[in-house]
Amino acid sequence: MSKAVFLILVLAAAGLFFWRATRTRPENGLSEPLAPIAARHETRQTALPWEEPSGQQASSQAGKATEEPWQAAGGRAAQQTAPSANYAADTPAQKLALLEEILLSRNDNDPRLDTAFNDLSPQTKRLFRNKFRQLPDERRNEQGTVVYLLGRNLKTDEDWAFLREVASAPPCLSLEDCSRQAKTEPDAHVSAGVELTLSYPAIMALKRAERILQAGTPGNAAQALQLIAAAKSSRAGIVSDLAADLERRYSRP
Fold it and tell me: What is the pTM of this model?
C-alpha cells in the first residue's frame, strides 16, 4: 500500500470519528438521551373542567403530565387510598362545584360522596335542590345521587318537603324521553332493571325514609311516614308498591 493511500485512509477514519463525537455531544458537553414520547407531550396550562383535580388528587398529580379526559375518570379509583380531605370549610359554591364534578364523572363509587357532603348548610341544600330541578328528567342516576345526599342532611320541613315532592313526582316513562312510553323489554330482568332506574330518585327518597324508621327517631319518623304516604299516590308502580310495603311494616296500628 502506497503512503498516499494510507494517509487518505487515516484522514477518512479521523473525520468519521470526529463526526460521530459531535453527534453524541450537545453544546453543553453532557450526553442526554431523549425523554420518552409520553413525557414530551405538550402539557396544557389550564385543565378542562372534567380534568380539574380535587383536593385529594392535587398532591398526587403534581409533576405529572395533564391527563386526557378519558383518563381522568378512570383515575378516581386511587382516591380510595388517598388521605381524606377536610371539606367542612367548603363554601356552598364549592360544594356545588364538587357535586357537579362528581355528576359529570358519573362515578357512583366516588368516595367523596360519603365524606364531602356531611352537615350541609341550608344555602348549600337550596343549591342542590336547584341543581336537581335543572337536570334533565332523563338523568335519573344523577338526580338520584342528589336525593341521596340531601336525604343524609334532613333537618327542616323544607328538606322533607323536597323529598315528598320527589317521591310523588310524575313517573319517567323512558330513559330517552320521560314524556314518552318506552317499548316493553322482552327480557323480564332487563325490564325490571329499567323500571328501577326510571324511578331511582323516588326509590332513594323512600329508602332514606326506611332507614330513619329503622333508627326509630321520633321526630323524623313522623316525617318519614308522611313521605311514604305521599309516595303511595305515585303513578309508578314500583314506587307505590314500595311505599305500601313500608307503610304496612312501620305504621302503628
Answer: 0.65
Lookup: cell for 30: 453532557
C-alpha cell at 54: 380535587
Neighbours of 123 (CB within 10 A): 13
| CA–CA dist 196, 12 (Å, integer) | 82
Residues in the chain: 253
CA distances in angstroms from 201 to 150, 197, 224, listed in the order given = 11, 8, 16
Residue 200 parent element (H or E): helix 200-215
Helix axes 200-215, 140-151, angle to 10 degrees: 20
Query: In whole angstroms, what is the distance from residue 145 CA to residue 183 CA?
Result: 26
Rounded to whole angstroms, the Cα distance separating 143 from 24 reads 61
**Tell me: the pLDDT tens digits for 145-176?**
999 999 999 999 999 999 999 999 999 999 99
DSSP 233: T
Taking only the tens place, the pLDDT of each residue in 225-246 is: 999 999 999 999 999 999 999 9
Are the beta carbons of 55 and 85 closer than 8 angstroms? yes
Nearest to 112 by CA among 122, 121, 126, 100: 100
- Distance (Å, whole) CA 211 – CA 219: 14
Distance between CA atoms of 147 and 126, rounded to whole angstroms? 12
Per-domain boundaries in the chain: 88-253
